[in-house]
Every structure is written in C-alpha cells, then in structure tokens.
Amino acid sequence: MQVSGPFYPLETGRRDVTLSFSGVATNDLPKTVAYFALRGFNERETVSLLGAHSIGTVHCGSFLNLLRSRCYNNHTSPSPSPSSSSAGDLVSPPSPQMAGVEMDYEGKGSCFGTLYYHSLLQGRGILYVDQQLTVGEETEAWVRAYGSDASLFRQDFAKAMMKLSNLGVLIAPVGQVRISCSKTV
C-alpha cells in the first residue's frame, strides 16, 4: 500500500516471528524507549519510528479503557484528549474487538505526514504511548522538530526503518515469510 511516505530500500524475503508483542504498545514511554534502546535505537529514532502510527487502524480495545478513565475520572496523565474527534465516538462501541479507528491524522485517504506530531502537541494522540512522547524533554523536542519539518521526519523515519528492518533478521527454518503483514500463517 502506498501512503506517500519516504522511500527506503528493504531486503526481500524477510522472515518474521509468529508471535505478537502488542503489549509493548501499552507501556509507559520510559519502558518503550528502553525497549528500543536495548536494540540500539536512541530517542530520536524511537520518536521517528512511532510516527508510523500516523497510518493504519487501531482497535478500540487498545485505548478504550484509557479514554473512559480520562473522561470519568478526570485523568490528568498524558493520554488522548476526550475532546478529540475520535474520542466522542468511542464511549460505547458495539464490541472492542470489532470497533476501530483509523490512525489517519492527515484526513481522508492514506497519508503519512507530520500532522501526527501536531496532534500529540495538542493532546490528541490516540495511543497512550504516542501521547507520552510529549512528556520527556528529549522526546518532546523531537515531536516538535518533526511537527515543523516534514523533510526531517521523513529522512529520519527512513533511516530508522532501514535500521529496524535489519535487526534480528530470521533465517529459514525459523519464522515465516508473510503474505499479509497483519496476519501470521
């Protein structure tokens, strides 16, 4: 799928693990930064990689409890704002497994850009880990930098993605080559 993001070369035939590590997405920012640091990524690279959250779909189960907590308990930690355009629609979805929200911060269509970072600065991040980028001094500085310089973001994102794609590459018979990136075989 094309999303008007930067070009970066990738090796073909990559094998992926058959497990999901979705729990990492609900971590506090220090844990997320530490998780990436253990793999050789600095805060700049981590903030740029999280910019990938500007596209795709997130299921309500990933953030519904956070929104309810903020709405009903006057939650004050960095979390999605209940006034965000998505939050009002999420108070009672039919089923957290079925409901989802497009991470399309850019508007209609599949776009990849810096509005994601502008949204974080306005307290309108959808995922907890994303909104926490505005808490750390260095991570907030990169959020501001990427929000004001699309070229810098795209350049840094491409470099970080190339680095990430070469991290712990699996060789047959371990892992699998996926036909669909979102599904394991």
UniProtKB/TrEMBL annotation:
<dbReference type="GO" id="GO:0140825">
    <property type="term" value="F:lactoperoxidase activity"/>
</dbReference>
<dbReference type="InterPro" id="IPR000823">
    <property type="entry name" value="Peroxidase_pln"/>
</dbReference>
<feature type="compositionally biased region" description="Low complexity">
    <location>
        <begin position="82"/>
        <end position="92"/>
    </location>
</feature>
<feature type="binding site" description="axial binding residue">
    <location>
        <position position="53"/>
    </location>
    <ligand>
        <name>heme b</name>
    </ligand>
</feature>
<comment type="similarity">
    <text>Belongs to the peroxidase family. Ascorbate peroxidase subfamily.</text>
</comment>
<dbReference type="GO" id="GO:0046872">
    <property type="term" value="F:metal ion binding"/>
</dbReference>
<feature type="domain" description="Plant heme peroxidase family profile">
    <location>
        <begin position="1"/>
        <end position="185"/>
    </location>
</feature>
<keyword id="KW-0575">Peroxidase</keyword>
<keyword id="KW-0479">Metal-binding</keyword>
<feature type="binding site">
    <location>
        <position position="104"/>
    </location>
    <ligand>
        <name>Ca(2+)</name>
    </ligand>
</feature>
<dbReference type="InterPro" id="IPR002016">
    <property type="entry name" value="Haem_peroxidase"/>
</dbReference>
<keyword id="KW-0408">Iron</keyword>
<dbReference type="InterPro" id="IPR019793">
    <property type="entry name" value="Peroxidases_heam-ligand_BS"/>
</dbReference>
<protein>
    <recommendedName>
        <fullName>peroxidase</fullName>
        <ecNumber>1.11.1.7</ecNumber>
    </recommendedName>
</protein>
<dbReference type="GO" id="GO:0020037">
    <property type="term" value="F:heme binding"/>
</dbReference>
<dbReference type="Pfam" id="PF00141">
    <property type="entry name" value="peroxidase"/>
</dbReference>
<dbReference type="GO" id="GO:0006979">
    <property type="term" value="P:response to oxidative stress"/>
</dbReference>
<keyword id="KW-0560">Oxidoreductase</keyword>
<feature type="region of interest" description="Disordered">
    <location>
        <begin position="75"/>
        <end position="99"/>
    </location>
</feature>
<keyword id="KW-0349">Heme</keyword>
<keyword id="KW-0106">Calcium</keyword>
<feature type="binding site">
    <location>
        <position position="30"/>
    </location>
    <ligand>
        <name>substrate</name>
    </ligand>
</feature>
<dbReference type="InterPro" id="IPR010255">
    <property type="entry name" value="Haem_peroxidase_sf"/>
</dbReference>
